[in-house]
Model the fold of this input.
Amino acid sequence: MSRRFLWVLASVPWSDQTCFTRGTWHGKPLFSTKTADRSVLATERQLTAMGKRPGGQDPAAFLYFRCRKAGKLVFANLYLIEKAKPKQPMTPARWASHRKMMAARRTCRECRETGWAELPKAHRTCEACLYSAGLDPHSYLHDYLVGEPTLTPEEHAALAA
Ligand SMILES: [Zn+2]
Done:
């Protein structure tokens, strides 16, 4: 059984009047479906539909609803509409900088090669560079390297020289 949120008549920071909430969640007022004031609070998607964005503000409240598909309670951030900022339209220059950022995620920091797949955030290094730098004993790449090495790293270096 999931938790039940009981009705609470509480004062809220954005209004001098009390309103019906479902108590608090993470220290902020909690609302159930169709109980939050649509003229004051909006989810991020509702702000987007209005051509606005949260603009760095913390959520003022939370909304919960039951998602039938996921079979669980889902919590959403509610933002104050009056604190929201207008959404910036994408200009060619903004698209260019966005593409540059996405390419940087696919670029190896060692060999500077840009591939198709995003590299791991921790090191942004391609598998070839990981291998030449020396694999740690728990690396998943060992699963793809079958058999026993026939040469030591020193003998390999001597071959290349
Ligand atoms: Zn590389």
About this structure: Residues 23 and 113 are 53 Å apart (CA to CA). The pocket of zinc ion is lined by residues 108, 110-111, 113, 125-126, 128-129 (CB under 6 Å). The first strand starts at residue 8 and ends at 11. The radius of gyration is 26 Å.
